[in-house]
Specification:
The structure is a homotetramer of 366-residue chains.
Chain A (H helix, E strand, L loop, with lengths): L4 E2 L4 E6 L5 E7 L9 H10 L18 E2 L3 E2 L2 E2 L4 E6 L9 H5 L7 H8 L15 H17 L3 E9 L2 E2 L7 H6 L7 H16 L6 E8 L13 H10 L4 E6 L10 H4 L3 E4 L2 E4 L7 E2 L2 E2 L4 E7 L9 E4 L5 E4 L10 H22 L5 H9 L1
Antiparallel strand pairs in A: 1-2, 2-3, 3-7, 4-7, 5-6, 8-9, 8-10, 10-16, 11-16, 12-13, 14-15, 17-18
Amino acid sequence: MAGSTFGNIFRITTWGESHGKALGVVIDGCPAGLSLSEEDIQPYLDRRKPGQTSISTPRKESDQVEILSGVFQGKTTGTPISLMVPNTSQKSSDYSQIASCYRPGHGDYTFDAKYGFRDYTGGGRSSGRETIGRVAAGAIAMKILNQMGIYVTAYTKSIGPISADMACFDREASLKTATCMPDYNADRLALAYLEECMKRKDSSGGVIECIADGLPAGIGDPVFEKLDANLAKALMSIGAVKAVEIGDGIEVSNATGSHNNDAFRSVNGKITKKTNHAGGILGGISDGSRLIVRAHIKPTPSIFSPQETVNQNMENIEIAIKGRHDPVIVPRAVVVVEAMTALTLLDECMLNMTARLSYLTDFYQK
Amino acid sequence: MAGSTFGNIFRITTWGESHGKALGVVIDGCPAGLSLSEEDIQPYLDRRKPGQTSISTPRKESDQVEILSGVFQGKTTGTPISLMVPNTSQKSSDYSQIASCYRPGHGDYTFDAKYGFRDYTGGGRSSGRETIGRVAAGAIAMKILNQMGIYVTAYTKSIGPISADMACFDREASLKTATCMPDYNADRLALAYLEECMKRKDSSGGVIECIADGLPAGIGDPVFEKLDANLAKALMSIGAVKAVEIGDGIEVSNATGSHNNDAFRSVNGKITKKTNHAGGILGGISDGSRLIVRAHIKPTPSIFSPQETVNQNMENIEIAIKGRHDPVIVPRAVVVVEAMTALTLLDECMLNMTARLSYLTDFYQK
Amino acid sequence: MAGSTFGNIFRITTWGESHGKALGVVIDGCPAGLSLSEEDIQPYLDRRKPGQTSISTPRKESDQVEILSGVFQGKTTGTPISLMVPNTSQKSSDYSQIASCYRPGHGDYTFDAKYGFRDYTGGGRSSGRETIGRVAAGAIAMKILNQMGIYVTAYTKSIGPISADMACFDREASLKTATCMPDYNADRLALAYLEECMKRKDSSGGVIECIADGLPAGIGDPVFEKLDANLAKALMSIGAVKAVEIGDGIEVSNATGSHNNDAFRSVNGKITKKTNHAGGILGGISDGSRLIVRAHIKPTPSIFSPQETVNQNMENIEIAIKGRHDPVIVPRAVVVVEAMTALTLLDECMLNMTARLSYLTDFYQK
Amino acid sequence: MAGSTFGNIFRITTWGESHGKALGVVIDGCPAGLSLSEEDIQPYLDRRKPGQTSISTPRKESDQVEILSGVFQGKTTGTPISLMVPNTSQKSSDYSQIASCYRPGHGDYTFDAKYGFRDYTGGGRSSGRETIGRVAAGAIAMKILNQMGIYVTAYTKSIGPISADMACFDREASLKTATCMPDYNADRLALAYLEECMKRKDSSGGVIECIADGLPAGIGDPVFEKLDANLAKALMSIGAVKAVEIGDGIEVSNATGSHNNDAFRSVNGKITKKTNHAGGILGGISDGSRLIVRAHIKPTPSIFSPQETVNQNMENIEIAIKGRHDPVIVPRAVVVVEAMTALTLLDECMLNMTARLSYLTDFYQK
C-alpha cells in the first residue's frame, strides 16, 4: 500500500530509513509565492535532534536539510518542494542482535509478518528518524499558517506521574527545557523521575498537548472528514502514540451534559464560548475557540532490562537491548505533534475554501 | 469538501439528513460473489434504532433498508451497492426553537459558520441518523470479514461511573441489555444511574470498547496509514467521540517500558505475546493478537436543564431544549463503532494483498 | 476497485444498472448556497432520453430525477446531494440470448472475466443508462459554472462520413436536431446516411466536440493532473469513446511547429492568441482561449447482422442481436460529453483556489 | 493542487525542475521482495537522454540515477523508494530572453497565469526533464510486470508524413534507430524529413504507439476508472501529447458496427478474437488480446523561425528562440509513453486483486 502520503491539497510524501543514505519529504500542493529557505526549516529539525540533553542519546545527528526543488529566487513556485536530510552519522554497527530477534514493543515482528523481511538497521522505516520528513514539511505548513493568523504550539504535558502546572504555562520554558515542559519546576521533577527510570534500566511514557489559536470557526467537515477525526489520525500515525484526546477527552465519558456543554455568549457581536470542554471543535468543525488535542506516548520500548522474546528461528530467548536509548520519547516527539497538527490544519483550511458558492463566484468574478 | 466518503478499496459514501426524504449509502469496491440481501443488513440497523428501551426516545423509526443496485440473483456483482432507508416518521414538528438559536454542544453554530446556513430540522446532516449509512455498509463488511475468519464485537464498557466487569464478559448480554453492557449487573446499575441523570434533567457520557479476533499479523502500514491511525480516524469521525484509545491507551503515558512491552513467546511454532498492552498493533501493523480499541463518548448535549446560548440575532438568551432525547448516546453508538471498525479492517486487509511481490506473481501466474 | 467515483473536490459517485430498481448519483462537495431543484436537472436528462427520434429506440424511459438529500429550503446545504432516477419501464423480457453468449463489441466477456459472472439484463452496469448519474451531476456542475461565467457546449461534429459545417455553427440546431448537429443541412444528410446503415442492419460511429468559453487562464496543473489529461480521462471513461483530441488533436502529428504554435498578442492590455491550435491548453493549464475537445465514438455494437461469437459453454456460435437498438450512439452521448467536461472543469477551478499564497491570505484575513 | 502524484496502489510522486539541483521520484506501494539496483533503471533513463543522435540536442546530460531508500540488501522492502538524478550540466546560461517573454507553444504564459511567476530556467517544471521521474519509476513497474508475464513496448509510429511499415515490425530497430522507429527504412526517410525541417528552421510532430502483451482479461473497471480512461490520462499527461487513441482510435467514428466489432472465437478452450479493432479493451476492461494505444505528439514548440509574442510588459514583440532544440520530440518521448503505460497497467493489476470474494477468502484462509 502507498501509505507514506499525508494530506489532500497540501500533500506530503515522506521516504527514508534510519540508516539509509538519506531521509526526505516531497511537499506537493504548496501555494506559490511563499518565501522559503533552509533557515525556515532547520530550527524545527533541530528541536527533534538527539544528543542535546541528559535524557537523549548522545548520538550526533547533524540532520541538515537541503531544498532540492520547488523554490526559485527565494520563493515557492507552486511545484513540488523536495527536501532531503542526508544520513551522515548512522554507522551500521553491530546489528546481529536485532537482525535475528524480535524486540518487544517494536515493529520488528509485524514488519516481517507483512513484508517477509525487514531492514533491521536502526529500525529501518519504523525508526523515529522517519519523522524528519514530517517535521520538515510541518515547518512549511507552520509558516503559511502564521501568515493566515493561525498559531500552533505543542509541549510536554506530563512525563510518567509528573505533570506541568498549566496555571503557570510558559511557552519559553517548553522550548528550553530538556523535557519540553512549559513549566521549569515540573521539568526538574520529571528529570529526576527519568533518572530513576534509567537507574532501574527502565523507561517512561508521557503526554503531549498541542493547542492552536487563531483558527477561524467553520474549518472541518461534518461526517468522515471531521477536523477531530483527521487530527486523531495525524497524531495516532506518530509511532508510540496509543491514545488521542480532543478537549476534555477521556473525561467526557464520566461527565454530565450540563457540565460538558459549553455555553455560547455573544460578546461585542462575536460568538464566544464560556468554557471550552469541546477543545474548539463541535460537530467535526472548528468553533473559533482554542483547539486542544493531546497524544499519549508509550514508554521507549528499548530498555536495558532483560526481556523475553523469540528469534527468527522461533526459539524462545531472553535479550537485553544494547546500545543507547532515550528513557522517554516524549520531548523529541513534541515538534512532531506540532508538525502533524499544522499539516492537518492547513490542509483543512484549504479544503474549506469551496464550502460556499459565494466563495467561488467571488474568486472567479473579481 | 467531499467529506462523506470512507475507505480506499472498500469505499462507502453516505448521504442524507435526519428529516430529509431518505438516508443512504453507496458501497463501491465490494467484491463480486457475496450472497447479500436486506436480511443481512437489517439486524444491524435494528440495533441502532431508538424507541426500544427506557433510556432511548420513544420515537418510532422503522428504518427499513432497501438494496437498489449492485446485487443480481442474490449475489454482489462487484458494482456499487446502493442502500436506502426512507425517512418515514420524521415529522418536521416545531423547529422554530433550534432554527433560531445555537444549541450548546451541538454543531448548529459551526455549520452556520462553515456553510452560511443549515438544515435545522432534527439536526440535519449532523444528526445521529447520519450513522445509518455507516451501519448498513458495516453489515456488509462484517459479512465479508466473517468469511475471512475475522470477527468484530463492540459493547458498552462504561456509562458515567459504572463499568462493566470484564471478568464476567457475556457477549449475549451486550446484545440484550438496554445499555449494551456485556454484564447484566453493570447494566442494572447503569440504568439506575441514568434514571438519576434524567431526574436531574441531565445526561451522561460513557465508553465503548471494540475487539477483533482472527485478524492475522501483518495488516496495516508503517507510517501515515498505520492501522491504529485509521482506526482512530474511523472512531473519532463518529459524532460525540472525544477520545480514542488503542490497547492500554491513556495508561501508557504513566507506564514504564518494562511493564508496557509485551513479551513474545513461540508456542507450537507460532509467535504469541504473553500480554497485550499494545492492543494488537505494533509499529502500525497488526501483531496477530486481539485488537482492542475504545471510544469515549460525550454526554448527550440535548438536555432539559436551561442553558445559556446565543440566537441568530446575536442576542444572549437562555433555552431549555424541548422534545425527547436519550440520556446517553452510548448504547445506540455501539453498533456504529463496530461498523466503523469493520469497515477499516476490511479495507486494510484488501490493501495488504499487494504487500509482497510473491503475492502478485502467485496471483497472476496461477 | 472502487471505480464509480469521479472528481476531487466536487466529487460524484454513481450507481445503478440498466434494469435494477433505480440509478443514481451522490454529489459530495457541492458548495452551499446554490438554488437547486429537480427542474435544474431534468432538462439535461431529457436530452439523453431515447424514444425521441427516428434514430433512437422507441423505448419509453421517463427518467424522472428526484432529489433525496442535500437541499434545504431550495438551496444546497454543502452536504451530499443524492439524486435518484427510478427504473420504471425496464422489463426483464427475454434475456436468454445475451445471458448465455458474449455479444461482440460489448463488455459481456470482460465482465465475466473480471467478476466471475454478470448482470446480463440490459447490459447491467455497462449499459448506456449508467450515464444517467453523470448527466444529472453534470447539470449541477453546469449551473455553478454558469454563475462563474463559464459555459460548456457539446454537439455532434460528424456521423460516419457526414460532418457539420462549422462555418454555419448554430447552437439551437444542435439542441433541436435528431443528430444533435449544429447544422440543419448536415443533420439531414446524416439521417439519410443512418437510414442506409439501418437498412444494411449496420450501425455508424461519429465525433462529438465540446467547447468551453469563459474559462480563465491558469486552470489545470503542470504534470500528472494536466487539464487535458483529466479531460481525456473524463471523456474516455464514457462507453464507446475510443479516441480523445485536444485542439488540433491528431493533426499535430503531421504539423510543423511554425504552423502549430499559436502566436501571442497583447490586445487592450490582455493576452490573446492569434490562433487556437492548442485548443485552449498549454503545458496542462488553460490559456484563456476557447477550450476545444473531441471524442470519437464507435458504432453501436448491437447490430442486426449475424455475428460470430462464443457462448458460455465455449461453443462457437452465430448470433443476430434481437430487440431494438439505435444505429448510432452519438446523439445521446452529446449531453454526457458536456456533463463530463463540466464536472472536470468545475473540479479543476476549485482546486485552483489555493495555487497562490495570496489567495489563502486574502481569504483568511479579510 | 497536489498534482505530482500518479497511481493508486503503486503510486509515484515526481519532483524537480530542469535547472534545479536534482530531479527525482518517490515510488510508494512497491511490493517487498523485488531485486532492484540502479542497473535496472539506468538503461531506461539512457533511452531518453539527449545528445545521442543528429536530431537531438548535443547537450550532455549524464542523468545518473541513485537509489536513496526502500532497498535493503538488494531487495525492495515495501517502503518508499526514493530515486534522485542530480542536475549536473544544466548551466543557467542566458535566460533573459525567455524570462521576459512568453514563448508560443510553451507553458510560460499559463504558468504565470496560475502561479503569479515562474522558474524560467530551462522550462522549470514544464521542461521535458520532468519526465525523468516517470521513466525511472516506469522501469520498476516494467520489471514487476515482466515477472507477471506482461510486456510493454513503445515505438515511433510516424514522424510528420513518414510512417513505419508495421508489416516489417522490428523491435530491435526501435531501440537502435535515432527516430525509435521499428523499421530501418522509415527511419532513414524520417531523418531526411527532419533535416529538411531543420533547414526551414522548423520542427515536426509524430505518433508513438505502445503495445502490451500478456495482459490477462479482466483488468480495468466498468465506469470512471476504465482501463482506457486511465491510459488516456496517463498519456495525455505527457507534455506535447494532443490526442490519444485506443485500438482503431479515430477511425471508429467513420466505421460501421459490422466492421468494428471483433468476433469472438473459442480456440482450444480459450476465448480469442478474430480481429482487434478494440485494441484489447471492451467496456473499460482488458479482453486478453494485445493492448494498443497511440499518442499524437505536437511539433517541438521551440523553433528558430521568428514568432510573434508578448513580453511581460504586455508589449507585442517578435522572437527567434535561441539555443539548441530537437526538431522533433517523439524519439525521446517513446520511453516516457512506455513508462506511463507500464505504471498504469501495474496499478490496475493490483487493484484487480480484490474483484472477487473468492480472491480474498483464498488469500486469507490459506
